[in-house]
Amino acid sequence: MKTVYHSADSRGKANHGWLKSNHTFSFAKYHNPERMNFGVLRVLNDDFVEGSMGFGRHPHRDMEIISIPLEGELRHGDNMGNSGIIKKGDIQVMSAGTGIMHSEENATEQPVKFLQIWIIPNKTDVTPRYDQVNIEENSVKNDFQQILSPNADDAGVWIHQDAWFNLAKFDKGFSKEYKINKSGNGVYAFVIKGKVKIGEQILDDRDGFGIWDAESFVMEAQENSEILLMEVPMQLPN
């Protein structure tokens, strides 16, 4: 088993007034050659947006973009005619493919917090696509809840990549083994809140931990915790 540990305070930081962001991997003006990606996981941004502010319409291409609200509400709009609100308990996905224009704005006067995640796809120039689903209604305690996969008929949303995302809401003292879905994949664990132990590594709020060259690992909650597990291919597409 190989691992990499990223403490919360080691992340790149950006403060634009209306937007405060922590970058696990190189993004915008934060560039760290040792923190470019974890396999095909290219971006993991922990964003805070002030009330009624947001990202105006802008383009993306050939990227799978996932948003997971943690607090508040985001208003989405795009050039495919999609519009609406995503909030805590939802997950949103966009396949940018041949090109998409979209905006994400805080829908209320209260701050919004969300995770913005980019995955490098296994195919390019696909038809752009948008989807969002509620994941709270199928929420489980002390188990892994799948919220993303490569398969359209699976639980959660799907993307153009052999990736599986799971949420884990563990009570203090609970432990469970996670088994890798596909050989050659690794898992990046991000602690949304709480404290967990993987192997000998203790992870606190907003810490990240990558595991690869393994078939499985055990995660134990040291406190009541919520963790996002992102299983992705470690080999970048040609």
Task: Please tell me about this protein's structure.
The protein is mostly beta strands and 238 residues long. The chain folds into 2 domains: 126 residues, Sandwich (Jelly Rolls); 94 residues, Jelly Rolls (Sandwich). The strands form 4 sheets. A 7-stranded mixed β-sheet has the order 1-20-17-22-15-13-14, with no helix packed on it. A 7-stranded antiparallel β-sheet has the order 2-3-4-11-6-9-12, with no helix packed on it. A hairpin with a 3-residue loop joins strand 2 and strand 3. The two termini are 25 Å apart. Pfam families: Pirin, Pirin_C_2. Its cofactor is Fe cation. One of its GO terms (molecular function) is metal ion binding.
What does the largest sheet look like? 7 strands, mixed
CATH topology of the largest domain: Jelly Rolls
CATH class of the largest domain: Mainly Beta
Unreliable stretches (pLDDT < 50, length at least 5) are none
Question: Which of globular, elongated, flat, extended, rod-shaped describes the shape?
Answer: globular
Integer count of domains: 2
Helix content: under 10%
Taken in chain order, the helices and strands follow as EEEEEEEEEEEEEEEEEEEEEE
Strand order in the sheet with the most strands: 1-20-17-22-15-13-14
Domain Pirin N-terminal: 11-119
Organism: Epilithonimonas xixisoli
Domain Quercetin 2,3-dioxygenase C-terminal cupin: 147-232
Family: Belongs to the pirin family.
